[in-house]
Each structure stands twice: as structure tokens, then as C-alpha cells.
Write a structure and sequence with these properties.
The structure is a single chain. The protein is an all-alpha fold. It is built from 18 helices and 2 strands. The chain has helices spanning 6-21, 24-42, 46-62, 69-89, 111-127, 136-144, 146-149, 157-165, 172-204, 212-242, 261-267, 270-284, 291-306, 310-327, 333-348, 352-361, 373-390, 398-417; strands at residues 95-99, 102-106. Strands 1-2 form a two-stranded antiparallel ribbon. The radius of gyration is 22 Å and the shape is globular.
Length: 429
């Protein structure tokens, strides 16, 4: 179920009302069933894969002892990573989806996210950082909690499991705060991300015809588009969870204010970067042993996590290269931002052939401004709106809420007129 659909707008009040009306024990069961319903509406067949992996990882963690924990950890990691690899790199378990009247194939929704959440949990149990969850329902809800199931944030058991097991009392402020956060998320997605997508797709959908300035601007706009798309999803997830009294972790912290590529990864997709840090980078030795090797391992794995294409590997390698240079004192804020934007070209390109074509064509066509006056004004307004909403730390005032809501309504109507809503970018991962 997409956040930007009528089904979700009807589902969320149902989930909230049912949750707050029930007793503590019944709430957990209800919320688990609601989460499975949320997932099933989007991809009916993929729910069985999610359930199967949930049962398997729960049993592995529950039956860990001092004598067998290494064996069970190895088995669990092999199965979870193996299924993830089969899905992403062989096409097994691909499911059919449809958006705006168009159908296609997609990975089981959220598999990259819930796989890492399961792995984090099983590693925490192995290390003795947490005790294995004896109750299946509590663990299954931790894995399947609908606000963050499909595209994160990748929650840690210490944060989410604890909150899901607490006996909360209804407070109307949960609803108010949650809706405010969701309002910002919907504005980022519908008004900014989907609005900029028109100009980005025009270039990346026809790489052989794009030229110079248009390529550079489209790549920079994609950097804003993917931030608003993904952070918009995270805001909607965070707001939905808040309406249930749950606080999800902050996944974005003004990433383009970063002073280096290292700083960027402390701010961008925080749940993924911290996951790689805790479960890959530090165990390999962190900055104390084979530092450069560890950087390259993490970023190449991050590229592979996003997809099987060489474009994602190149994107990961670019970040690893810049991190390597920075570790030797080379680089500044400008070069970091330039490297991040250059990396987005590979991330967005449909193939390495297209990426190389775009790079080659950057040097031609600088004598033509690629936009009409109306298009230029639209782009400037959307970029300005992004900057203002991204840096508005105070509680949203009533007048700002009105304009956010108005923008969402107008943007939504325009999307419907153009044939339907755009899926969130990270759904494909």
C-alpha cells in the first residue's frame, strides 16, 4: 500500500482507532494484522515470503545458546542474505505491480529494509546486546510495523521493540504531532519530488538527446528530488508511527549542509549508514585497522544493496573514493557537494551506457538555455520551497500548514490529471 494513495488515507484512521480502542495485549495482535494487511494490499504474494522469514529468524534467535549461537547466526545470515540476493540479482520472487495504469515487475516490497532489520536483530541477540524475543507476535510486529516496513527507517530492536511492548495511554497530542509531520512529508513528496521529476525524467529518459547545462541542472534537481522523495516517505512513516505513540528514528538531518562526504553520511539515510557502521565497518576494524579497505567494503556493499546494476556499484565507488581522499586531508565542502552530485548521475541513470553518454554530452549545448520562463520559475519555486521546509525547525504555524495543505491538494490534482501518482523512489530497493 502506497502512502500516497486513497487506500492508505482510509487505512490509517482505521489502524489508529482500532489500536487505541483495544487493550494492550489485543493492540499488538491488531497492529500486526493491520501491518500484514497493509503489505498484502500492495503485494499479496510477497506477504508469504515476509511471514516465512519472520518465523525463521524468530526461531533462530529464540533457540540460540552459548554452544550453537555461531551456527545459528551463520545459518540465519546465509538464508536472509541468500533470499535477498536471489530477489535482487536473479529475478526470483519478482511480483507484478501497477501505478497510474502501468504495470511492471518489482522486488518484494521492502525486502532490503526488513532483511537488514532482521539481521540487525539476530546479530544483537548473538552479541548479547538484547535478549531473544520469546513472543512471536511482538517480534513479528517489530519486523512488519507498517509505517516503516516498505522503505525504513531500518529500526533497531532496542528502540522499536521496546516501544511496541509499552502500555501506552491515548493522548490527542500524538495525533496532532503525527499529522503535522505527515503534512511536511506529503508536501515534500507530492509538490517538490513529483514536481521536479518532470524535469529530471526529461533528461534521464532520453540521455542521447540531453546536452550540457540541462544535464547538470537535472542531476542537481535529482539530488533534491530523491531527498524530498525519501525524506518525505520517512516523515510520513514517522508521523504515522507518532499517531500510535511510537517514535521512529530520524533518518535525514539536512544532508546537503554537510561539510564533507563523511559528514553527508552522518546525515543521509542515517538508519542505513549507521547499520553499516555498526554491523560491517566497526567489526572489520573501523578506523583502527585497514581503514581504507573498510571504507571501500562498506560503500561497495551499499551500492550493491541498492541494486544489481553497475551504476549502483559506480555510485558506491565514487563515495568510497571521496571518503578515501578526505581521509588523506584532500577535499573541502565544495568538492564534497560536487562529488555527491556527480554520484547521483550514476544512481539515476538507467545503465552505464546512459551514464557515460550523459557525461560525454555535458560539454555540448551550452549556448541554449533548456527551460522556458514558466519552467524556470517553477523550478526556482520548488527549490526554494524545499530549502524553506527543510530548514524550518520550529513548529509549523497555522498559516504555513494551510499553504502546505493547499500545495498538496493542488499537486495531487495535477498528478491525477497527468495519469496517476509516482511511486516512492526507494520502493524499488
Amino acid at each position: 500500500m502506497n502512502f500516497n494513495t486513497l487506500e492508505f488515507i482510509l487505512f490509517l484512521p482505521f489502524a489508529c482507532v482500532g489500536y487505541w480502542l483495544l487493550s494492550k495485549k489485543a493492540r499488538t495482535v491488531f497492529l500486526l494484522l493491520a501491518s500484514w494487511l497493509f503489505y498484502s494490499v500492495f503485494q499479496p504474494r510477497a506477504i508469504f515470503l515476509l511471514m516465512g522469514e519472520t518465523v525463521f529468524t524468530w526461531l533462530c534467535a529464540k533457540n540460540m545458546t552459548q554452544e550453537n549461537k555461531k551456527t545459528l547466526l551463520t545459518l540465519c545470515m546465509t538464508v536472509v542474505i541468500g533470499i535477498l540476493a536471489l530477489c535482487k540479482y536473479t529475478g526470483v520472487f519478482l511480483v507484478t505491480i501497477g501505478f497510474g495504469g502501468n504495470s511492471g515487475l518489482l522486488l518484494p516490497a521492502g525486502i532490503s529494509f526488513y532483511s537488514f532489520q532482521m539481521l540487525g536483530y539476530i546479530i544483537d541477540v548473538y552479541r548479547g546486546d538484547i535478549e531473544a524475543e520469546q513472543g512471536f507476535v511482538d517480534y513479528a510486529l517489530f519486523v512488519s510495523f507498517f509505517p516503516q516496513l516498505v522503505a525504513g527507517p531500518i529500526e533497531r530492536s532496542k528502540n522499536l521493540l521496546r516501544q511496541l511492548k509499552e502500555d501506552k495511554h491515548f493522548d490527542s497530542q500524538y495525533l496532532v504531532d503525527g499529522m503535522e509531520i505527515m503534512l511536511r512529508g506529503y508536501f515534500k513528496k507530492i509538490v517538490i519530488a513529483d514536481g521536479l521529476a518532470v524535469f529530471v525524467d526529461r533528461v534521464y529518459g532520453n540521455a542521447s538527446a540531453a546536452v550540457g547545462l540541462e544535464i547538470i541542472i537535472a542531476t542537481m534537481l535529482f539530488g533534491i528530488q530523491i531527498l524530498c522523495d525519501f525524506s518525505g516517505y520517512s516523515d510520513i512513516a514517522k508521523g504515522s508511527a507518532k499517531m500510535l505513540g511510537i517514535d521512529l528514528m530520524e533518518n535525514f538531518r539536512h544532508p546537503y549542509d554537510a561539510t564533507s562526504v563523511r559528514d553527508f553520511w552522518r546525515r543521509w539515510h542515517v538508519s542505513l549508514s549507521s547499520w553499516f557502521s555498526d554491523y560491517v565497518y566497526i567489526p572489520l576494524g573501523g578506523s583502527h585497522k585497514h581503514h581504507i579497505r573498510n571504507i571501500w567494503v562498506v560503500f561497495l556493499l551499499s551500492g550493491i544493496w541498492h541494486g544489481a546494476g553497475w551504476t549502483f556499484v559506480a555510485w558506491g565507488a565514487i563515495h568510497a573514493l571521496y571518503m578515501t581522499l578526505e581521509s588523506h586531508g584532500i577535499g573541502n565542502r565544495f568538492t564534497a557537494l560536487a562529488g555527491i552530485m556527480f554520484g547521483w548521475l550514476f544512481f539515476r541513470a538507467t545503465s552505464m551506457t546512459d551514464a557515460m553518454a550523459l557525461i560525454q554530452r555535458m560539454i555540448v549545448g551550452w549556448n541554449v538555455f533548456p527551460y522556458t520562463l514558466t519552467e524556470a520559475v517553477k523550478i526556482i519555486l520548488m527549490v526554494l520551497a524545499w530549502y524553506l521546509i527543510d530548514h524550518c525547525e520550529d513548529k509549523t504555524s497555522p498559516i504555513v500548514k494551510f499553504y502546505l495543505l493547499l500545495g498538496i491538494l493542488v499537486g495531487g490534482i495535477m498528478l491525477l490529471q497527468s495519469g496517476g501518482q509516482n511511486a516512492f523512489i526507494y520502493f524499488q530497493f
